[in-house]
Every structure is written in C-alpha cells, then in structure tokens.
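We modelled the chain as a single entity of 106 amino acids. Its sequence is:
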Amino acid sequence: MATGKQSSGAQDAQPPYQIRCTHLPLGVYREIAAHLRQVTGVEAGLLPQTSQDFDYLKSQAGGLWIRYKPEADDASHLRVEQVLAYYGDRYGDWDVIKPQAAVERK
C-alpha cells in the first residue's frame, strides 16, 4: 500500500543515533548538522527540545541525530568523529541519547 511518501533510502541505512551537548547553542547545532550532511553517506538533523522550562544556559535543541547510509565508508566515519571532536573540544562533551547500532564496515 502506497503512502504517498518517497523513500529516501533510509530503510537501507543504519538506524540513527542521537547525541547532545547540553550547552551547545541552537545555531551551532545547525552548523554541525549542515557540516555532517556534507559527508558522503551521512544524514543528520536536529532533535526537538523536550524541556518544558526555558533556560538561557541550556541549548534550545534537544540534540543531534546522525545516520550512516550504506555508502558511508571508513573515511566518512572518521570525518564525523573529527567534526564532533572539534565541537566537543569547544563546547563540552557529547552525551549519547540513543546509541548507534553496530556498523559493519567492509
């Protein structure tokens, strides 16, 4: 049965994993997601903020989701790690919300 939605190949990709950095500004989350989407075989986006209370000292995004598609190679995984390390060094450690499933690399 057709749903009218086009497949983006996501069913062939690894399930997304989710991370967050508590004090990362929304604009920086957007910058990271845009950077990661430029990496071959990587999809990324923002998670909504789930807190009911506004706090200037906390991020206004709930986190970041990252999915590796089948065409992601070792270089793609390394590049994602480098990007996350760069921002982690500047804004604080990343917390894993939802871990990544084991990824088989050839």
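As a brief sanity check on the tokenised model: Confidence is low (pLDDT under 50) at residues 1-10, 102-106. The CA atoms of residues 16 and 67 lie 4 Å apart.
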